[in-house]
Design goal:
alpha/beta; 7-stranded mixed sheet; 11 strands; binds pyridoxal-5'-phosphate
Length: 524
């Protein structure tokens, strides 16, 4: 044996021999199962000072490879004390970030296959499974057919790659909702610029004052800038006011600006407010028509018959709430989506699929690929040139992409739509239960409408008392909640609330009752 072969036999070049990998892998699967089965007993937030892990880790990487056992020991000794347990059933902060055994297996298989699927040619399975699974999921949440790929592959590929007219529809898996809104914004900018309507005025983006900060961030990245974002006022339920949107857009157009995208939120982060998507799209369309009257231009070229709002792109951000649409009784959330250009929600929030998995659909896929396509010589290939395939590199900002569809496929097959609906319904029931408990205690109020399993509460005693209760409850380690500040009441004064976001995979009734006990005791 040469020294290289000896090294290889010992697993040197692969980090481990296959035998060692099997042993370590089985051990790690056991560890994960034990962790998830026992996560309930752990403090949700670690009690560590900032820097404790950083300072405990050596300053230099090891020169010589270490034994797996030693690395694994350090997971317990070093890493775990600083872990926040998002999979704890007592985690009610931010929004949930579900995982499940089938999804973890999908992630593992994706890592094992080690594919980078930016072109169809890179590995047909990654693209075609994603197309099919995105159609499954789109149908499962009740999206209109225009957002889906055609049923036959040849037609699906032709629809989204052909040259003339607006593109057909389809779905893609992004990493996050932030990437989804950025992608929509880039496509929107392209469409407005391709249309040429409205001259050279500053491109402008609209969302409610309650929209997620990712809209403003996307505008900053896309070159629109913070100053190009208009945050529209909200009504008593904290939903965007379509009349104010229309007025603002018209005033902007009259001042020479060019509206390019409106982001409607279905389930805002702070309180779960639902913007009226149809009314928002129609307001945007009316305002956009006024721009064409001013400029004397006709319809915006390339903005297809069904396209959002007369060339202004309407994006629907349903990052959390979209998952609930697997249940027909929650599909009202999608009212008006047929007037939008794109729709996004995160299965990694509340649909049992571990981070990252953000589902994005558009009815105008060609606007995406036209705005994001680059074609250097080293990426050219026959299938792409013949327009026989979907190349997902053209549907996202990065080139490289993971095999995320596997975990979604595993989840959808293992749970079935029935299982997904049961998951959502149980948490909505628990949201109702929590709301009832809070309403039954005169020290508390529920100042904004509950959406599904997201409930906001506050102390009638005021902001300070509310902040104190949040602090105490989180410090106990027996639950995790996050706060926000939102305009409440007739005067719309900013008030502090505690968000109780129920939806962790393992959260059951006893955890929700315990969460209420915790907040209630903290208020004493
Ligand atoms: N939109 C809404 C309504 C959200 O609540 C969130 C995060 O919670 C986001 C967007 C951003 O999500 P992501 O972390 O996937 O970018």
């Amino acid at each position: 044996m040469t020294s290289g072969e000896e090294r290889e036999a010992a697993g040197g070049l692969h980090g481990m021999s296959a035998e060692e990998f099997r042993r370590a892998g089985h051990g790690l699967i056991d560890w994960i199962a034990e962790y998830l089965e026992g996560v309930e007993g752990r403090r949700v937030m670690p009690e560590v000072r900032p820097g404790s892990l950083y300072d405990a880790l050596p300053g230099e990487a090891p020169e010589r490879g270490e034994a797996w056992e030693s690395i694994a020991r350090d997971v317990d000794a070093l890493i775990m004390p600083s872990v926040t347990h998002w999979q704890s059933p007592d985690f009610h902060g931010f929004f949930p970030c579900n995982n499940s055994y089938p999804s973890v297996l999908g992630e593992l298989l994706s890592a094992g296959l080690g594919i980078n699927g930016f072109l169809w040619q890179c590995s047909p399975a990654i693209t075609e499974l994603e197309m099919r699974v995105m159609n499954w999921l789109g149908k499962a949440v009740g999206l209109p057919g225009e957002f889906l790929f055609a049923e036959r592959h040849a037609e699906a590929a032709a629809c989204v790659t052909r040259e003339a007219g607006a593109g057909g529809g389809g779905g893609v898996i992004h990493g996050t909702a932030s990437e989804a809104v950025l992608t929509a914004m880039v496509a929107a900018r392209h469409r407005v610029e391709r249309g040429g309507a409205g001259g050279e005025g500053a491109l402008t983006v609209y969302a409610s004052s309650q929209a997620h900060s990712s809209v403003t961030k996307a505008a900053m990245v896309a070159g629109v800038g913070r100053e190009g974002v208009r945050l529209i006022g909200v009504d008593g339920s904290l939903a965007m006011r379509a009349d104010e949107l229309e007025r603002t857009m018209r005033a902007d157009i009259a001042a020479g600006r060019r509206p390019m995208l409106v982001c409607a939120t279905v389930g805002t982060t702070s309180t779960g407010a639902v913007d009226p998507v149809g009314a928002v799209a129609r307001a945007a369309r009316r305002a956009a028509a006024s721009a064409r009257e001013i400029s004397g231009a006709g319809a915006v070229p390339g903005a297809g018959a069904g396209a959002g709002a007369g060339g202004v792109w309407v994006h629907v951000d349903a990052a959390f709430a979209g998952a609930a649409c697997v249940c027909p009784e929650h599909r009202w959330l999608l009212e008006g989506v047929e007037e939008a250009d794109s729709f996004n929600f995160n299965p990694h929030k509340w649909l049992l699929t571990n981070f990252d998995c953000s589902a994005f659909w558009t009815r105008d896929a060609r606007a995406l690929s036209e705005s994001l396509s680059i074609n250097p010589e080293y990426l050219r290939n026959k299938a792409s040139e013949a327009r026989e395939v979907v190349d997902y590199r053209d549907w996202q900002v990065p080139l490289g992409r993971r095999f995320r569809a596997l975990k979604l496929w595993f989840v959808m097959r293992r749970f079935g739509l029935e299982g997904l609906r049961a998951h959502v319904r149980e948490h909505v029931r628990l949201g109702e239960l929590f709301e009832g408990l809070a309403r039954g205690d005169e020290r508390f109020e529920v100042p904004t409408p509950r959406l599904l399993s997201l409930v906001c509460v506050r102390l009638r005693a005021g902001d300070e008392a509310t902040a104190r209760v949040l602090e105490r409850a989180n410090a106990s380690g027996r639950g995790l909640f996050t706060g926000s500040v939102v305009p409440i009441g007739a005067g719309g004064e900013n008030r502090r609330v505690i968000r109780v976001a129920i939806g962790a995979t393992r959260t059951r009734e006893r955890h929700v009752r315990a969460a209420w006990e915790l907040l209630s005791k903290a208020a004493e």
